[in-house]
Amino acid sequence: MVFIMKSLTVIREFLDSRLGIGPEKVLPEALLADLGVDSLTLVELMFEFEDRFNVTLGKDFAGPTTVGDLASLMDRLRGEQG
Length: 82
Hints:
By secondary structure, this protein is mainly alpha-helical. It has helices at residues 2-19, 39-53, 67-81.
């Protein structure tokens, strides 16, 4: 549970600073596309995540479609590499 809260916080902070999306809209069930997250923004977010938590995202990851999917991916990487 601690991981997902930190991952969700990173996602919320990033989307607020880059896209001006308030944290109250960044819910686990929210579709990334509906929030305006395109493939470039997703890559930038993943770089931010890699830098912040010192993990490496594989080149073959399947793109998440929801905020919850993204948080789960982050949690899995942190668990495997952290």
